[in-house]
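Shift notes (night). Ran Succinate--CoA ligase [ADP-forming] subunit alpha while the centrifuge was going.
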Amino acid sequence: MAILVNEQSKVLIQGITGKQGTFHLKRMQEFGTNVVAGVAPGKGGRIHEGVPLYETVFEAVEEHPIDATVLFIPAPYCKDAALEAIEAGIKVIVIITEHIPVMDELFIVNRAKMKGVTIIGPNTFGMASWKCKLGILPNVAFSQGPVGVVARSGTLTYEIVGSLTNVGIGQTSVVGLGGDRVPGTNFIDMLKLFEADPDTKAVVLVGEIGGNAEEEASEYIKTMSKPVIAYLAGKSAPPGKRMGHAGAIIERGKGTYEGKVKALTEAGAQVATFPYEVVDMIQKVLKK
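Came back to this:
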């Protein structure tokens, strides 16, 4: 199994005809994703890379039962595009876009919560469940198996997942929360889904300095029956300096590497010092 989406999920892409939308549409199709429609204002009625185009999300959902949508939309227009998908009734929305204004993000996330919609992102690499990829993750890294992965960092996730795949350990689902200060979902949301998924036998949590997301996740990890292996980026980051992501900044002594390691360890998670250690730790917990 997998969480949120699977190989039967019907996927829409908003911004499908742009450079990024077209490139990643092809990669998603190669992965096995069932892309059934795209939205491209002014191009409705055409076919793009084998996918029918529509003027609006509402037109697309009238013709196709849409389970999830991926947004390759420029930041100034992303709020309207996300709200259109929410109001059209799509339940999983992946927002790849970065540099969305914070107030726009707050509006999107709050509206999604009111409607019972799951937002992955903004500023995310997306997510992948076996044969269904929503976003920009590299196809070659993934394989089917028993490990769930939830992360704030993209490239670290690719490295860790690729290393797991190389030793024959696949994944149920891999989810990128996004690096902004206003994520649509958090670690706890995804940990609950992995805990309930019978095919997920262990979970990898890829965190980073800044904020308190990992500390909050620690409280839920205490209740989990499945082992959690964590890796945290930013060990050497100086206080007050943002490291890549908007949320990756230590402020007023909060969000430190040491504090997160302490919280996770006390909750029962194993914390790797280096990314390559995650593979060894997962191998050991899966053998138990």
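Residues 15 and 66 are 16 Å apart (CA to CA). The two ends are 21 Å apart (CA to CA).
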